[in-house]
Write a structure and sequence with these properties.
single chain, two-stranded antiparallel ribbon, 74% helix
Amino acid sequence: MKGRPYLALVFSMIFWSFSFVWFKIANRDYDPITIVFIRLAVAAIFLSTFLWLTKGFTKIKSGDKKYFLMLAVFEPFLYFLGESFGLTYVSSTVGSVIISTIPVFAVIFAWIFYRERLKLINYAGVILSFIGVLIFITNASGNIAMNLKGLGLMLIAVSAAVGYNMMLHKLASKYNPIYIVNVQNVIGVVFFLPLFLIFDLHKLTETGIVAGSFSSIILLAIFASSGAFVLFAYSVKHIGISRANIFSNLIPLFTAIIAFFLVGERITLRNIIGMAVVIAGLFLSQTGKRVSIAAEVDLAGRSA
């Protein structure tokens, strides 16, 4: 089914859009490291159980171990540190808009490392989408209408996401998407465990289980850290990094709508114009077929 990767992308973006709102809800009672650690641990248990029941575990080739390690370093470790702490300073909608700049950088690095290129109209779509993002995060005078510390932290997340895409490109055609995501989550748990024990364990014991906030962490684990990543990895395998990442420009639209209904965040006319430009760019970026200088069999990055 030709449209299956695109449908998978839409659902992955919806799940990630919800994640910004679920994080803000969980953050009312729990600190970022606690949220991330529990989120990853639950996701690892959930996916490991599924792989065990379906006999989906496989052996990692020795040459790929370093790529799995780097995959987890970029995301979830560095990405979640930047995103989670960044969201304590900016709204869920603004955070999602910054994250939507990932396609701009992903296209550049996909060309540098994998010679994966798009048509001129596709690049125009990427630029148009980025202009929409700028409209969204600036005010009428052209100044950035947000916390600069939050912006810096979110940009760390963006950089980590680009690195993640480079590593995912090497693994997507060799391993089952569910297995890839499970490995990155398990390694992520190992990375975050010392931080959790040192900084947040005592706070969690004092706070205890707060139903609304804790349930948001579970939703993050099942839908964002599991479902969204699996669907995204599946799509990258079939349509490439550049096209798959353009869909992250839908995240601000979905997040703004969800945040409006769930946490009462305001949507301005400028926000709506910005979103419209972003979506117009998305459609332009998907016009025509992807052109790859390297052969499609090279999706695993064997030319590197």
